[in-house]
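Troubleshooting entry. The earlier prediction with S-adenosylmethionine gave an output that would not parse, so I re-checked the input for stray whitespace and re-submitted. Clean input:
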Amino acid sequence: MWKAHYDKIKKEKHPPAYTLSQTLNLISSKDKFKAIDLGCGNGIDTFAMLEKGFDVLAIDKDSNAQLLLQKQISPKDMVRLNFQNSSFESLDELPSADLVNASFSLPFCHPHQFEKLWLNIINCISPEGFFCGHFFGSKDSWSSNSDMTFHNLQTVKKLFEGFELLYFEETAKNGKTLSGKEKFWHVFHVVAKKHHSTK
Ligand SMILES: C[S@@+](CC[C@H](N)C(=O)[O-])C[C@H]1O[C@@H](n2cnc3c(N)ncnc32)[C@H](O)[C@@H]1O
């Protein structure tokens, strides 16, 4: 299903997501910084985090993602990358992480499983750790898809009660998917830092 998306991203040599780039600018390189890339796809963001020296656990339900990562990874980074072929809906507890990145992926979690997934995410982020990623809004063209999860301003802000929002933008505009189809994009772009006192 995601092949066209992966091919397009690779061909055009896309940079990492803006939310991730912003987050990487806030973090000074340090040893043993643990990141999780949820819905890693072909790994544009995963590779940016590896380049920064992080240990990365990349998760995707599409096993092609693993092949694409393996094809492109430089040998020196191999020891710092783990791939888990799991769906968000079936994820057990996530390991502790300093950063969870989820670029354009969490909306594809089934709404019945989203709350469990979100609790899992916020519990795994260490105090003063980061989340960056995207949520889709209820005005998005795909919002009639009952297998996907959509938010509004209130519900998305509520997700971040234990966090400081460092970057928050809501966009709503016509555009295209990477495979060229017209759609209305209603997206919340988020970078957040977990408060020190919450787990
Ligand atoms: C739009 S792509 C984004 C890929 C990558 N994060 C990026 O920004 O280029 C969504 C990714 O999420 C993965 N995905 C979709 N639904 C998923 C689910 N329920 N569980 C795990 N991964 C999922 C897809 O396989 C795909 O790689």
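This one parsed fine. The chain has one domain: 2-194.
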